[in-house]
Amino acid sequence: MLVVLIYAFAAAVLGGIDSPVGAVVGGLLLGVTINLLSAYVDFVGSELRLPTALAILLVVLTIRPQGLLGHRTVRRV
Amino acid sequence: MQLPRPLFLALKVVGVAAAVVIVAVLPRFLGEFRLSQFTYIGIYFIALLGLNILTGYSGQISLGHGAFMGIGAYVTAVLTLGRPGLVLFGQHPPGWLPLGDGMRPILTLPIAFVVTGVVGFLFGLPALRLAGVSLALATFAVAVSLPVVAKKFESVTGGGGGLSLNLPETPFGLDISAPHWLYYEAWGCAAILFVGAWLLVRGRIGRAWRAIRDGELAATASGVSPPLYKTLAFGVSSAYAGVAGSLLVIQVAYVNPDTFPLSLSILLLASVVVGGLGTLSGVVFGAILLEFLPIWAQHPPLLPFDFAKQAPGVAFGVVLILIMFLIPSGVGGLLRRIVRPLPKPVGTVSD
User: Fold this and answer.
1) In this structure, which of A18, A44, B251, B309 has its CB flanked by the most CB atoms within 10 Å?
2) Quick one: residue A55, left, alpha or beta (phi over 0 = left, psi -120 to 50 = alpha)?
3) Which residue(s) pair with B341 in the sheet?
4) Separation in Å, CA of A76 to nearest CA in chain B
5) How do residues A22-54 score in pLDDT, each as one tens digit?
6) B224, B232, B134, B179: which is closest to B42 by C-alpha?
7) Are A6 and B140 within 8 A, CB to CB?
8) Distance (Å) from the C-alpha of residue B181 to the closest C-alpha of chain A?
9) Per residue in B1-15, pLDDT tens?
């Protein structure tokens, strides 16, 4: 399923896309968070799991584009 | 073939005039079914124009344009029904939503344009930090998410059952039949948005977009702000898609979460490549292909047999591969290769 790819990608961005340790941390964090949310928050339920992953992805990109453990890239122009 | 500039310009004007005349008189020669097909072409034309602004001119990829069409469609459907209409469906939308009491479908078009534009802009703001394949994935997630979200917010969207509108009729007491009205409505919007896209693309903004597409670093060095212009492209592009979705829901008078499947987003991207990235006029060929290829692939003209239901996907793939091999710049690029203006004489200052 292609949907797995989206979860994986969101996890990678959450952990920091250039960091191997970040991938592990992000994967665990995202997986556990989404499952807890869908189990205990009625609004999310089983339907809104994917949109939640997308929301997490967008929030991370807005607040901390390098992810939790990634490196901030500085580009000189 | 290279033409002197004034001649090329004249040819362009003649081409546009011919296109306008063809679109205007075509309904006289078409039955109702064919007419609706050409209405769809007008609608796809708008969506593809938007996608071409994003992909062709500013070099960003989007697999989520079907979803933006869906947002536009829902805006139109909900506003056309209004609160009383939704209550009639047995839904109870939350009181704080400004739904109104229902309005003419055509008046919802600008609202859909603005709403989808804002949504696209807000989505583009974080998403355009990603590039290439990552951006494709993020927009892909939007395309997958929209049906789910639409089903979840049942009180506004009608859930899986969708929303049906009244059958379209001709407003303002005009003396034409409803299908003709829809046709002219779609192509009228297409004309306006085409001119809008042309003005955007030829000016300062278009130059900034092309600069970002061709070399982001160089563009930044020349004082162009990539985040600003990329997000702008995303906003404009999704606003176009929103109008296309609105027109679609006015045409079919029905919308549900599966009206805008993931495959639509992918086919839109394929069509824009076939039409020609970075050419506005080539887009119309992409739209024609998007409407007719699925039909021709299943019921090939001139052949005495039909193909399976899965044939359109295969046909699209084959056409895409052939185009990539034969005319990588698409139909629009091919046209430009056949007729192009002489280069400007050395020494003149351009722009």
Assistant:
1) B251
2) alpha
3) B3
4) 9
5) 999 999 999 999 999 988 888 887 888 888 998
6) B179
7) yes
8) 38
9) 777 888 888 888 898
